[in-house]
Amino acid sequence: xxxxxxxxxxxxxxxxxTVIVLTALLATVLVRLSVNQSASIxxxxxxxxxxxxxxxxxxxxxxxxxxKVGYRARCSDNSLQTIDSDSFTVTxxxxxxxxxxxxxxxxxxxxxxxxxxxxxxxxxxxxxxxxVLAEVVK
Length: 138
Description:
Strands 1, 2, 3, 4 and 5 form a 5-stranded mixed sheet that branches. 50% of the residues lie in helices and 34% in strands. It has helices at residues 5-67, 69-74, and strands at 76-77, 81-87, 96-107, 110-123, 126-137. The chain is built from 2 helices and 5 strands; from the N terminus they run H-H-E-E-E-E-E. The protein is an alpha+beta fold and 138 residues long. It has one domain. This is MSHA biogenesis protein MshP. Keywords: Membrane, Transmembrane, Transmembrane helix. It comes from Idiomarina tyrosinivorans.
């Protein structure tokens, strides 16, 4: 009924190895989750930069459409025409570029200018792209 001292030592060794293996597996899973979460956060940040680049490009184009006749002339009836594209050099949008397409629709006495701005940002080989639609009536 009684176990010998040698048998008890063997059981403790098996329990210790099992605990070490389970701890190592848990640590591996936690490291992988952390890496995946970091990659997700980085992708989200690059996506936000692309969104802000698209909004900025759209605002630049809408300002030009409102205030510069030459830009209005570039907007074609019923088909999207590229009217502007550029890259940003300001802090926060470095590595981002945008392209604005525009079309005009003449509705009675008002002309509606509809723009589609596509921006993309690349950081360390990761690229995100976003689109912004806007309309101004002149």
